[in-house]
Design brief:
Layout: H1 3-13, H2 15-25, H3 33-40, H4 44-71, E1 99-102, H5 105-111, H6 126-132, E2 135-138, H7 143-157
Parallel strand pairs: 1-2
């Protein structure tokens, strides 16, 4: 489950979220994620407002997803939730184990489709995340290297 996917779904289909954004910023922004990002990442108060709107809903969505998985006829032994702001939101308390994947800043910038701005400055430093994590990996190699790391984590968790 991807937190970013949940946010996309909230923007697209959650009427309360859409209404709140329309009331705060006007109807033109509700379907323009780039414009929303430009607004919130240039104004800390607007970012805080949007996070108060979205973060509880994201947490509820992935908790429901996990509960649905567990209540199925053949529940999986392993479920993965991807949360970019896990430590920043205190979300690590909701999970049995945490995996942190980092990469050097220049490599992140080269891989990212998002323009560079100040959004990285509000994140907990990678070395702190690595200290808190149960598993950590620096993703500066090949996809095969990353796959081997993921296999090793899955094997350890089984």
């Amino acid at each position: 489950m991807s937190s970013d996917r949940i946010v996309h779904d909230l923007y697209a289909g959650d009427e309360e979220v859409r209404r709140a954004i329309e009331e705060r910023w006007g109807g033109d922004l509700v379907d323009d994620r780039a414009a929303i990002a430009e607004r919130v990442f240039s104004d800390p108060a607007e970012l805080a407002w949007l996070e108060r709107l979205l973060h509880p809903r994201v947490a509820i969505a992935y908790q429901k997803w996990i509960a649905d998985l567990r209540s199925g006829s053949d529940p999986p032994r392993l479920a993965v939730v991807e949360i970019p702001l896990l430590y920043e939101t205190g979300g690590e308390r909701r999970f049995d184990r945490v995996v942190v994947v980092t990469a050097p800043q220049d490599l992140r910038a080269a891989r990212s489709a998002v323009r560079s701005d100040d959004r990285w400055r509000r994140l907990i430093p990678d070395d702190e995340k690595v200290k808190r994590a149960d598993f950590a990996y620096v993703n500066d190699g090949t996809i095969e290297d990353l796959d081997a790391f993921v296999r090793s984590v899955v094997d350890a968790l089984r």
